[in-house]
Write a structure and sequence with these properties.
Blueprint (H helix, E strand, L loop, with lengths): L1 H8 L6 H27 L8 E2 L1 H8 L3 H14 L2 E3 L5 E3 L4 H29 L5 H18 L3 H19 L2 H20 L4 H15 L3 H24 L3
Antiparallel strand pairs: 1-3, 2-3
Helix pairs in contact: 2-4, 3-4, 5-7, 5-8, 5-9, 5-10, 6-7, 6-9, 7-8, 9-10
Length: 240
């Protein structure tokens, strides 16, 4: 009986079990490829409008074409790439309307994330949720990157700060919704200027969240997102 069960449970190398075994590896490679291409889009090594050829990207990343194909498909879904009429993909150009639409969606979600994060802190008092430490670390990293004039690191830290707020909110539906915007927000943050007063706004948001003041956290986040929108439009389109 034991031998029979073991025989049934052992997948043959060329059978369905081998496909299942290879799936996690392919997923891992696809995720690595997706992160690598996203990073190149955000730091503009792949500029807006650039056509990406699957074979060339695979050679650059030293990967096979299958995970790269999956990565490019995923980035189309994130809104960072767009399909060309006949074949292939290119880096999506962000038009003024795209930026406006992105902020229209992000604003209420970001405000609610800060409100929920502060509420969670207040309910945890006197203990401090671990997420508060993550926020503090992201703030420190952003300040250090700005001091070192490392734009890419600063963008990554600012993105992490907003993602940490969402994580601290404890709302998985909010997290899933904002995850769909993450790539486009990273691209936008990398394209625009980051004035000092906006970095200071992050510190204000952190203070209200860390003290559990949900209404002040929400109000400071609303101010920050609206300032961010104005800066983006001014930086990218010479608009106010």
């Amino acid at each position: 009986m034991t031998g029979s069960s073991a025989g049934r449970g052992r997948a043959r190398p060329d059978g369905p079990g081998s496909d299942r075994a290879g799936a996690p590896e392919r997923t891992s490679l696809s995720a690595r490829a997706r992160d690598a291409v996203r990073e190149r889009i955000v730091d503009r090594r792949y500029p807006q409008g650039a056509r990406l050829v699957e074979r060339e990207v695979a050679e650059e990343l030293r990967m096979s074409r299958v995970p790269v194909r999956e990565a490019l498909r995923a980035l189309v879904g994130e809104g960072l790439l767009e399909l060309l009429p006949h074949s292939g993909v290119r880096v999506r150009r962000m038009e003024r309307a795209d930026v406006e639409h992105l902020y229209e969606v992000w604003e209420p979600l970001a405000v609610q994330a800060s409100r929920l994060a502060a509420r969670r802190v207040a309910r945890s008092a006197p203990a401090e949720p671990p997420g508060v430490t993550a926020l503090r670390i992201s703030l420190d990293r952003a300040e250090q990157a700005a001091s070192d004039d490392e734009g890419a690191r600063e963008v990554a830290a600012h993105t992490a700060f907003h993602e940490d707020i969402v994580a601290l909110s404890g709302n998985p539906m909010l997290a899933r919704t904002l995850e769909q915007l993450s790539g486009q927000l990273q691209l936008l943050f990398g394209m625009r200027e980051e004035p000092e007063h906006m970095r200071a706004q992050h510190a204000v948001m952190f203070r209200y969240i860390a003290t559990g003041d949900e209404e002040s956290a929400a109000a400071s986040t609303l101010l920050h997102v609206r300032d961010s929108r104005a800066v983006a439009l001014r930086s990218l389109f010479d608009d106010a």
